[in-house]
Structures are given as structure tokens and as C-alpha cells.
Amino acid sequence: MSWKVPRSLAAQTHRQLRDEILAGIEPLLFEDINGGYALRARLEAAFAAEIGLKHAVAAHSGTVALFIALRACGIGAGAEVITVGNSDISTTGAIRQAGARPVLCDVREQEYTIDPDLVAASISEKTSALLPVDLHGHPADVKALRAIADRHGLKIIEDAALASGARDYGAPLGAFADVTMYSFAPFKPLGSAGNGAMLVTNDDDIAARLRLLVGYGAAQAAEMGAQDYIAEGYNVPLDSVQAALLLVKLPHLAKWTARRRAIVAALEAGLAGTGAVTPRFRPESAPTFRSYAIRVPARDRIYRGLRAAGIEAVVHYAPPITRYTVYAGAFPNSERLPVTNRLAEEIVNLPITPELTDSAVKYMIKTTRDLLRAV
Ligand SMILES: Cc1ncc(COP(=O)(O)O)c(C=O)c1O
Q1: Over 80: is that where the pLDDT of 5 sits?
Q2: Which numbered atom of ligand 1 lies nearest the CA of 317?
Q3: Distance 92 CA to ligand 1 centre (A)
Q4: Which of 1, 46, 82, 227 has the maximum number of C-beta atoms within 10 A of its C-beta?
Q5: CB contact burial 136-155 (16+ within 10 A = b; e otherwise)
Q6: What pLDDT, on the 0 to 100 scale, is given for residue 80?
């Protein structure tokens, strides 16, 4: 189906940046097939500068990067990690694959992120880390979590997969966590044309372990013939072609984030006075919007109506992860997540991509208003 309002118009942007993109990729194919190392290092430096943190390590995907982050923080067998039930399977999957146990905490109704007031009740003597998720691009209150983590000696691994471009308390996301992961999968606010992720941290030791695990466990700067391995690592760096693409796109991120926010401001104003409940944010929070996750009555009818009208709405993070087959019996207390469970029944995600025209946004408002009036 060709959508009137699609989730992504990235190919259109790529066409506008075509010469620059090809200038980055072609040398990798036709001149220096080993040039990926330098490209990745340039992207890491540029991303660290953009975020204002000391270290950035580029990895193959958000999913593997979360696993690497947990391992680099020493989270493993016997540990408990407090996270949320409204996320991607990657979040809980990474925790379990690291050998730890996810403990689910409910979320704030206004912004859909972990509720710091409820975290303390989930802490046990096995708790080793908190793993907040900046869902849909909404910053979790990691500053509030930092105070709790410091009291209990916990690490914070922030899942900012959906939040490239968002800020909180005047800083890009990552300032209050031990490690933060940004994903570059194609539908993310800074998307590649494949997979990709960046891990950012201010901690020198954690950064060294991240690098080690991403790169085979190899000791750095070994002379030829004196190669040494100081860990059994993985081989999961960011693909070079995606690094070349992202180097071209990164300088545009702030402008694209501003456009995402402007589209959401128009939608919010246009949906005022309807049955839709739009998210509300703390005053310090400057979210980005991978999509606009609004709460509506008769969600499934609205979702189908939007799609029938050519608007590529989706329903993200529903059902909650507790209902997935793979987790049957794994979270016996899932009824203790009333907000998570309710949001999963009410949220529909309107498509947001910076290329959307004002008339596409107006069409989305009118269609949503008409559908809401009819339910
Ligand atoms: C909240 C969240 N965390 C982690 C991931 C995993 O990222 P990736 O797709 O880069 O593996 C996703 C992907 O959609 C996500 O939405």
C-alpha cells in the first residue's frame, strides 16, 4: 500500500543527501575495504560530541548493544534488573540473556515511562541495576532514578533506542546513566538503512569493557604476531556502510528533532477537545517523537480507521511483554502493572517523520477527529 501519511520518508531525505552519502560509501567498496574502522571511529567521536559524553561505542544493533551494556556493567547470573513491561522484547531479552532476571515496575500514566516513586518497592538484595526505557522518545526521569540507584549501589543502563535527539534537564539523554543505548534501526529518529546502535558513557572502565566485548575481547593496539585476548567477546561492531550513512545524517538530527516536535505541537492542538488523551511531560523534559503515542477510546477501531484512510498508524508495545508466549509464567505478578496494562489497550501511534508536510499533518488531524467523533 502506498500511504498518504507513512511512518518514514527517510528515502526522500537520502535522495536529497545522495552525493554526500555515496561519497562516504563508495570508497569502502572501491578503494579501501578496510576503511570501516576509521569511519566508525569518526562517527563515535561525532556522536560523543553531539551527546556531550566522553565515550561512544558503535554496535551492530540496539538489541545486542543492551546485552553488551549489561555485561560491561557486570550484570549477570543471580542479579535482578528493574525495568518496564511496555518495551521491546530486546529490553527484557538482553537482561535474561545476560543471565539476570527482569523485575517489572509500572510506568507513569502521563508520559509512559518508569515511575521512580514505585521503583523502591521493587528493590531486593539481588537488585543490581535499573533499566529505564525512553519509550516513543519520551525521557524517563533518570535523574530521579540516579538518586535511588546511588542510595542502593545500583547501575543504570538507559534504553534510549527511540530517543536520539531528546534531552532532559538541559542535557542529551545519557547524562545520569552509567551506559545509554541509542538505536539506529531504520524507523528510529536517527535511522540507518539496516541495523545499528551507539553506547555512550562517561565512565572510562565501562567504555573499555564495551569496546572489548564489541570487538572479540581483543587487547587493544597489539603488534602483529602479539595478539592477545583478555576476554571472550563478540564481533558486533556497527556495520561500516551504516556508519558512513549516519555520519552524513547526524549533523541534521537537531533540525529533524525540531520538526518532529513542531508536528506533535500541531497534532496536540488539533486534537484538543476530542476523546484523545495526549502525553504530558515534566517541565524539564524535551522529548523527541519516534511516533505520537496518543490514548484513544475504541483503540482498535481508530487504528483500523486511520490505516484505511492511508495513515500508517501502528500499535507499539502492545500487548505488554508479560503476555508474550516466551514469557508464559515468567512474570506472575503482572497484574501489579495496572498502568502498563491499561496503556497497552489505549495507545495508538500516529506516524511522525520530519519530512511530513503541513497538509499531511492537517489531514491526520482531520481524519483522527472524524474517527473519534464516530466512536
Ligand atoms: C525500546 C527499544 N529497545 C530496544 C530496541 C532494540 O533495538 P534494535 O532494533 O536496534 O535492535 C528497540 C527496537 O525497536 C526498542 O524499541
Answers
A1: yes
A2: 16
A3: 11
A4: 82
A5: bbbbbbbbbbbebbeeeebb
A6: 98
Report cis status (omega within 30 of 0) of the bond before 287: no
The atom of ligand 1 lying closest to the CA of 159 is: 3
| Cα 66 to middle of ligand 1, angstroms | 9
Q: Is the pLDDT score of 324 beyond 90? A: yes
For ligand 1, atom 13: residue with the closest CA: 88
Q: What single-letter DSSP state applies at residue 230?
A: S
Multiple choice CATH, 10-105+112-251, 3.30.930.10, 3.30.470.20, 3.90.650.10, 3.40.640.10 = 3.40.640.10
Q: How far is the CA of 226 from the centre of ligand 1 (A)?
A: 38
For ligand 1, residues with CB inside 6 Å are: 61-63, 87-88, 90-91, 133, 159, 161-162, 183, 185, 195, 197
When pLDDT is averaged across residues 89-103 and rounded to a whole number, the result is 97
pLDDT of residue 332: 85
| Confidence bin at 1 (pLDDT 50/70/90) | low
Confidence band (pLDDT; 50, 70, 90) for 342? very high
Cα(139) to ligand 1 centroid in Å equals 15
DSSP three-state, residue 343: helix
Please report the atom of ligand 1 found closest to the CA of residue 187: 14
pLDDT at residue 335, as a whole number: 82
Q: For 344-358, what is the mean pLDDT?
A: 98
Contact 358, 259 (CB under 8 A): no
Domain ranges of the chain: 10-105+112-251, 252-374
Best residue among 7, 8, 61, 63 to mutate for probing ligand 1, ranked by most atoms within 8 Å of CB: 63
Provide the H-helix boundaries in the chain.
10-16, 18-30, 36-51, 62-72, 89-97, 116-119, 142-152, 204-214, 240-249, 253-270, 299-308, 338-346, 358-374
> What is the CATH number that goes with domain 252-374?
3.90.1150.10
Q: How many angstroms separate the alpha carbon of residue 359 from the centre of ligand 1?
A: 31
75 CA distance to ligand 1 centroid (A)?
20
pLDDT of residue 88: 95
Tell me the whole-structure pTM to 2 decimals: 0.97
